[in-house]
Amino acid sequence: MTCKDLMVGALALAACVAVASTPADAQRKYDPGASDTEIKIGNIMPYSGPASAYGVIGKASEAYFRMINDEGGINGRKITFVTYDDAYSPPKTVEQARKLVENDDVLLIFQPLGTPGNTAIQKYLNTKKVPQLFVASGATKWGDPKNFPWTMGFQPNYQSEGRIFAKYILEHRPQARIGVLYQNDDFGKDVLKGLKDGLGEKTALIVAEATYEISDPTADSQIVKLKTANADVFVDLTSPRFAALAIRKVAELGWKPMHFISSVSGSIGSVLQPAGLDNAKGLLSTAYTKDPSDPLWKDDPKMIKWNAFMDKYMPGVNKADQGYVSSYMATQTLVEVLRRCGYDLSRANVMRQAANLRDFEVDVLLPGIKVNTSATDFFPVEQLQMRRFDGRVWELFGPVMNGEVGSPAG
C-alpha cells in the first residue's frame, strides 16, 4: 500500500469519525448554569435568624457535592454550589433567588428551605422556568405540576402527617381533649388541616388552639393556655427551636399529655438534647428516614456508607442532628437526576428526569420507603412510619403508611 493510499484511508476514517460524532454533539443541550465542565446549582438556607438550626442542611449538601467532585463529578462535570442566607425572611428569599437566577446564572435552585420563603419565590421561578427542585418543606403546594410545573417538593407533605396523628389519637385516646400549638404560617396551618381532616366528625375533640410567630421569643404563654384548657393530648406543630422550648416548658409545668411533635422537629441532636432527653421521653412523631443515633442501623451497609461520608467530609459535627440525614437524602436524589440528564442539561430536561423516578432507593430512607415521581406526582416521598422516643432513641412501630392514612405500603 502506497503512502497515498494510507493518506486517503486516514482521511476517510477521519470523515467517518466526524460523521459518527455529529449526532452525539447535536444532542448536547445546555441552559444557563451548565456546560461541558460545570453544573451550577443554587440554594437558599436560613444560616441565621430564628430557623438557623436548619442551616446544617445547606452545609451538608455542600459537603456532598465536594465528595461528588472528588469522585470526578457528574458525567465529567464538576458541581459549583452557590448557597445564600435568607435568615428565614421571605423578602430576603426573593432577593437571593433573583441573585441566583439573574446574576449567578444557576441551572436550578435546589432544596430552598421553608414554606414562607418558597411561597414568595414560587411564581417568579415558574415564570422564569427555573427548577425549584426538592423544596425543603412539606407543604402540599409543592406538588401542583399543573399550575407550577417548575416546582417539586420532596418530603412527605404535612397534611399526611396530621392525618396520621389523628388516626393514632382516635385509635388510642378516642375521648381525647386535644390542645394544638402551631406556627402561624403555611407550615403550621398545613399540618393542622391534615389533623382536622383526619379527625373528621370528631374535630370537637380539639378544645384549644394557639399560634406563635417565628419571631416570638417563646411560646410559653400559649402552652400554659393549652394546659389550662385541660388538654390531655398536645399536638405540637412547631419548628425545631420552638419544639425544644415547648418540650422543656411542658416538663416545667408538670403537664403529662400525650405529646406529638412534627417530624421536622424530631432531631435528637438539635431538638431533643437541648430540651433534655428525660423531658422528651414518650414523645410521638413520624419518620421516613433512618436515625443515625439509633443502634438499630449500626450494621446497615447504607448507614455505614453515610457515616463514612460524614467522617470524611463533615468531621466533628453532631451526627445526631437529623438535618444531615435529610440533606443527604435530597442531594443523593438530585445527583441521580443530573446523571440521568446526560448531555441534555436543559432546565426542561432536569424537570423531566426529576418527574421520572421509579422506586429509586436512597441510603437513608427507612426500609420499604422509595422515591417515586411522575408527570402528575411531584411528591417524591409519600410514606411515613410512627415512632416513639424512649429517652435515648426513637423507636419505630406499626406499618409504613402511604400518604392516605391507614394504607400500608406495598
Structure description:
The chain is of the alpha/beta class and 410 residues long. It has two domains: 38-156 and 297-379, Response regulator (Rossmann fold, 3-Layer(aba) Sandwich); 158-287 and 386-401, 3-Layer(aba) Sandwich (Rossmann fold), CATH 3.40.50. 42% of the residues lie in helices and 16% in strands. The strands form four sheets. Strands 3-2-4-5-6 form a five-stranded parallel β-sheet, sandwiched between helices. Strands 8-7-9-10 form a four-stranded parallel β-sheet, with helices on both faces. Helix 2 links the parallel strand 2 (38-45) and strand 3. The longest helix has 25 residues, at 3-27. Residues 10-26 and 404-410 have low confidence and may be disordered.
SSE order and pairing:
Blueprint: H1 3-27, E1 29-30, E2 38-45, H2 55-70, E3 78-85, H3 90-103, E4 108-110, H4 115-128, E5 132-133, E6 151-152, H5 158-172, E7 178-183, H6 186-199, E8 206-212, H7 220-228, E9 233-237, H8 240-253, E10 258-261, H9 268-275, H10 277-280, E11 284-287, H11 301-313, H12 323-341, E12 344-345, H13 347-354, E13 384-389, E14 394-401
Key attributes of the depicted protein:
Rossmann fold; four-stranded parallel sheet; 16% strand; 410 residues; alpha/beta; single chain; 13 helices; 14 strands
